[in-house]
Design brief:
388 residues; 2 domains; six-stranded parallel beta sheet; 15% strand; elongated
Length: 388
């Protein structure tokens, strides 16, 4: 997208503050790409974990600062974290001064805290982007200093009363290759056709899937098992054991610790089993794929459960808490849904409807001082119902 003449985006110098995890870096990268296309200068300020945007966006300068966790650990660890945050704050002030930045965008995580604080103290425009349905600890700390808070969900928990008026529902930007999937029809399975199931565990993997999912598949009726083609993320030595279960069950399975071709695999899948991190939810919605969601039970403030419930409430998926997850329950759910093409297509449509197209553009508008369109009168573009 190219900025029109007079667009306040052009000529801006925007510093993005994001940590090293994909949940923070993916939307930061999508915003960077959008801002660059409009004529802004963009820099990324991150901690040592942050790898930057690499060859994909070589125009984005990367600067690294110190950062520390905001809570937890022993007294010594807490004092060390405070020292790192203080040093990171001084480093961030220097970076912002050198960059001559006029805007700071924080994407959450403790790596964003020093830069956002430094930007606020320098009088810069501060925008926060929250990827989850529960405001993260870093963004809770920084919210009073923000001019605007971009949300990925229509409702966000954890806001103070005085910060509600700052919230704009922009959506969570996704990679272009993922966004493009929503433009194609959902690959509705026909009678006796292959059923493609994608099993992913997020950036940290999910060991529980290594045991429960194969056992659930093994318990499916033979006729259904013969139709299955599973792509599953399996990390570590468990891959051989998982493969042997699928082979004994007569199920075609492609197993890997990491799938470099995730857009293609998601595009071909009729159903997904996964965690409920912000990026996973955003990509499922953008692609319009129904999912069985098993929230990571140790996520901060249990935000994955809030994400999953919001997604499932629209009809786009099903939530199975890990504490209650059994192979029998999962097998029963899979047998019922996979055998009902109409139910799958309805869930796919609901998942797609949960998304918010144009999130990167809407976020860029907000970053540059514009009021992002809350009502989005153009609406979510309709997707064709025909099978691929």
């Amino acid at each position: 997208m190219t900025a029109p003449r007079g667009d306040p985006t052009r000529g801006r110098i925007v510093a993005l503050a994001a940590g090293g995890t994909g949940g923070h870096m993916f939307p930061a990268q999508a915003l960077a790409r959008e801002l660059l296309s409009r004529g802004s200068e963009v820099a990324l300020i991150t901690d040592r974990r942050g790898s930057g945007f690499g060859a994909e966006l070589p125009e984005v300068r990367t600067e690294r600062i110190n950062a520390g966790a905001l809570a937890g650990g022993s007294l010594v660890k807490k004092l060390t974290s405070v020292g790192r945050l203080a040093l990171g704050y001084l480093q961030a002030r220097g970076s912002l001064r050198r960059l001559k930045a006029d805007t700071v965008v924080g994407f959450g995580g403790y790596a964003s805290v020093p830069t956002v604080l430094a930007g606020a103290h320098r009088g810069l425009r501060v925008v926060l982007h929250e990827q989850n349905a529960v405001l993260g600890r870093a963004n809770r700390l920084l919210a009073p200093r923000a001019h605007a808070i971009a949300s990925s969900f229509a409702e966000v928990k954890g806001l103070k009363d005085g910060d509600h008026h700052k919230v704009v529902f922009t959506g969570n930007p996704v990679r272009p290759a993922i966004a493009a999937l929503g433009e194609a029809p959902y690959p509705r399975p026909e009678a006796d056709s292959t059923l493609r199931l994608l099993v992913i565990g997020g950036s940290q993997g999910a060991e529980v899937f290594n045991t429960v999912v194969p056992a659930a598949v093994e318990a499916l009726p033979e006729a259904l098992r013969r139709r299955l083609a599973i792509s599953q993320q399996v990390r570590g030595p468990a891959i051989d054991k998982v493969r042997s279960v699928y082979e004994a069950a007569g199920v075609t399975a492609n197993l890997a610790g990491f799938f470099a071709d995730m857009p293609e695999r998601l595009g071909g899948a009729q159903m997904v089993i996964g965690r409920a991190g912000a990026s996973t939810i955003a990509e499922l919605a953008a692609a319009g794929r129904p999912a069985v969601l098993v929230p990571y039970p140790y996520a901060a403030d249990d935000h994955q459960t809030a994400n999953a419930r919001a997604f499932a409430a629209t009809g786009g998926g099903w939530v199975l808490p890990q504490a209650e997850l059994t192979a029998g329950d999962l097998s029963e759910l899979l047998a019922r849904v996979l055998a009902d093409p109409a139910a799958l297509q309805d869930a796919a449509a609901a998942a797609y409807g949960f998304g918010r197209a144009g999130a990167a553009g809407r976020l860029a508008d907000l970053v540059c001082g514009g009021g992002a369109d809350q009502d989005d009168p153009a609406g979510r573009p309709a997707r064709r119902d025909a099978a691929a």
